[in-house]
Amino acid sequence: MHKEILVIDDNPDIRSLVSNILKEQNYEVRTAANYDQAVFEINKKLPDLAIIDIKLDKTDKDGIDLLKLVTKKDKLTPVIMISGHATVQIAVEATRLGAYEFIEKPFTKEKILNYVNRALESSKLKKEKDIIENKLFHSFELIGKSTSVIKVKKIIEKLSTSESRVLIYGPTGTGKELVARKIHKNSSRAKEPFIIINAALLKESTYEKELFGEEFDDGNISFGALERANKGTLLIDEVSEIPFETQANVLRVLIDQKFKRLNGSKDINVNIRLISSTSKDLSELVKINKFREDLYHRLNVMPIELTSLSSRTEDIPLLIEYFKEKLSEINGVQQPKIDIKNDNLYTYNWPGNVRELRNLVERITILSANESQSKINKIIEDILNPASTFSNKDLLEKSFTSPLKEARKHFEKEYLITQLKKNHGNISKTADFIGMERSALHRKLKELGIKGIN
Questions:
Q1: pTM assigned to the model
Q2: Which of 226, 290, 364, 412 is positioned for an S-S bond with 285, CB 3.0–4.6 A?
Q3: Strand, coil or helix: 234
């Protein structure tokens, strides 16, 4: 089916010129000559893309108002603004409100087609991304019958009518982002943006830019996470990693609900709900002056604790059955024969928690769905009990005769060394295999004194 484009311009020559250019490329074209016609066409059916002139026939309404109307109906519908006499401020405002591009008249055939093709391709990628995210998060539920999971579900339900800031804490892989998405989805902000910034993955020099955005001498603007999350929800993942100096600026935004972009002079007002998550104990970081106490209390209005999978093993059978069904549906394969009574599933420590369990089920679903029950049991044993393949007997004996804390450290070190060797020292592949975040694995390797392995 050909893409449909709506061309809105009160100049009949421009409407005709743009329409003919687009029709030559087999696009379907609708046109509107004034504001009222444009509103009628937009309400009748949203196009795949809109080309809108900024100055129209109504003095009180213009192309910017039409841009707002289109983005309100569907923020993924790309809009290209055109004008022969707009100021830089208007162009910047149009971009801030969601316009894909701003083009000055006169323009060439090549230029308009280039922007149209790029806008449609960008829209396609964003929609595909939304579909993937929907499969990965929105369709997934918080599964479990344990006391801790039931408690979290009740808190999420209560938060649906609240605007309180939330701090989600728990080990890596326990589902902190999933909980944050559920809170957003159940709130009055559900149709507004949900933006994530992972503080553990940013360079120290880029925190301010990523949060607040930046203005450049040529008039261009880089929008930060705070501005992109306006009216919606911002999740700051691993909030403990924000530099101490930047924490003061975050605190000021929470107090004033406004900020300035880097190199900017104008206050940007925002209305966001802030959710933070951490795998560290922020209260302990406060005690050693690694995290601001005033910011901690601002973030920790409604705390939610996610416990490790090894502390709620009664949820493992439910999670396996759930992931089997969901992942086989997503990957288009039959469900694997996983024995939920397999002892290995309950004696294993699950350092990567629910994410690691899900990764295990996904690997079996994709690679071993047609294998027999016994074969899959062997695969699970090999993955979850790598100690059985270790050749260093002295180390194992030392582990078995040491206090629990020391034995665990010996095991973790040997386990991680083995996995790194299997993946030729590739941190990303190792983290993905064992179900840990890359940043968390880096911290664990440093803690255990494990250096580069090839």
A1: 0.60
A2: 290
A3: strand
